[in-house]
Design a protein that fits this description.
The complex is a heterodimer of chains A (133) and B (147). Chain A has 133 residues and is of the alpha+beta class. Chain A has helices at 30-35, 39-42, 54-62, 104-114; strands at residues 7-12, 15-20, 48-49, 125-127. In chain A, strands 1-2 form a two-stranded antiparallel sheet. The two termini of chain A are 42 Å apart. With 147 residues, chain B is an alpha/beta fold. Helices cover 31% and strands 17% of the residues of chain B. Chain B has five helices and four strands, in the order E-H-H-E-H-E-H-E-H. A four-stranded parallel beta sheet of chain B has the order 2-1-3-4. Classes of the chains: A alpha+beta (133), B alpha/beta (147). The interface between A and B is large, with 66 and 71 residues.
């Protein structure tokens, strides 16, 4: 199946050349045109990947990461980035110990701000800060 | 496949110029424990205009459009009554707005490297405003009403 690769093959003076792909809204390739639709339709058709979808399954199966036991009483998802930037890792002792920022001032302000938003919230909020500003 | 009525979900929302593959390429979703995968339906959307999601030509890709798409394609389509939200970077804004719009259904919010808006930092570089407060200041023009 044709796949949009960012350029279009054409000929100039008899020689094959690659033209840059047009703007996405003007690209005529099947992959791009299939995604063009009015907002009323688009809103109901977001692509949603699931771990058991074909792509997700293969990626999950190929993962080298170790699975860790999770406290079944903990209803919230426990994720932790540690001090890493974008590469996440699961800390083995984290699932049963929800952590919020060690900074108590930030912690209390966070709870004041966020908890009223989520009446059903009863578990963890994790914030990690990157220094990209 | 639609969700079972009694199954909660975890929604992962990627950031700007990214796609759902972010959560797989960084091994985050693949590394979720078997228990989490069994107890929760993991849903990882491409936001509007990203990845394999539609690219509407009549959209401004505004916050309201993105929220509408997430609500229609995830919450309403799957009839989600209970879900966790995980956002990365710009996805944190969407996670917070979704949480504000359906507070009864959100079980937890996980914000990974949330967005700093300029007002979040003082002149001396110290944190002057919490990111979540700054975000809501930033999104003020958008009416955050409950679903």
């Amino acid at each position: 199946m044709y796949k949009c690769v960012g350029w279009i093959q054409g000929k100039k003076n008899g020689e094959e050349v690659n033209h840059p792909r047009p703007r996405w809204s003007e690209c005529q390739c099947p992959e791009c045109t299939m995604l063009l639709m009015p907002m009323r339709l688009a809103a109901k058709n977001l692509f949603v990947r699931c771990p058991d979808s074909p792509t997700g399954e293969s990626r999950c199966t190929d993962s080298q990461g170790q699975e860790i036991p999770v406290d079944s009483n903990l209803s919230a998802l426990a994720l932790h980035l540690g001090d890493s930037k974008l590469i996440p890792k699961l800390s083995p002792d984290l699932p049963s110990v929800p952590q919020i920022s060690d900074n108590l001032d930030i912690k209390s302000k966070l709870l004041e701000t966020l908890l009223p938003l989520c009446k059903g919230l009863y578990s963890c909020i994790f914030l990690t800060y990157t220094e990209h500003v | 496949m639609l969700l079972d009525a009694d199954q909660s979900a975890v929604i992962f929302i990627h950031g700007l110029f990214s796609s759902s593959l972010f959560w797989f390429d960084t091994k985050l979703v693949p590394n979720l424990s078997k228990e989490i995968k069994e107890q929760h339906r993991v849903l990882v959307p491409d936001i509007l205009g990203c990845g394999k999601s539609p690219r509407p030509v009549d959209s401004l890709y505004s916050l309201s459009d993105q929220i509408e798409a997430l609500e229609e394609s995830l919450i309403k389509r799957h009839g989600l009554e209970s879900f966790h939200l995980v956002g990365h970077s710009m996805g944190c804004i969407f996670a917070l707005v979704l949480a504000a719009r359906c507070p009864e259904r959100v079980r937890s919010i996980t914000l990974i490297a949330p967005v700093y808006t300029p007002g979040a930092l003082a002149e001396d570089g110290k944190l002057a405003q919490l990111p979540c407060e700054a975000v809501f200041t930033f999104v003020k023009p958008f009416s955050v009403s409950v679903l």
